[in-house]
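Re-run with default settings, no changes from the original entry. Doing this only to confirm the output is reproducible before filing.
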Amino acid sequence: MPANDQQPQPQQPAPQGPDPVQTLLLVLVVVLLLGGTGYVCVAHPSLTAPIAAVGGVGAALAAAFGVAVALRRR
């Protein structure tokens, strides 16, 4: 038996970047959501305070979710 007869090691796939279609859809949804929220705030000024409160809580939850996902991938 030759000394250099070794089993080939399986190669791991290279990490890929984000899917461009998924990124485009995410940007589109964010733009539409912000635009709709801005329109409601302009059309109905009495709803500005509740929308701002919900936005603040949503931002905190999104940040916590982002941190959790980032830590899970490590």
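The chain is about 70% helix and 0% strand. Residues 4 and 21 are 46 Å apart (CA to CA).
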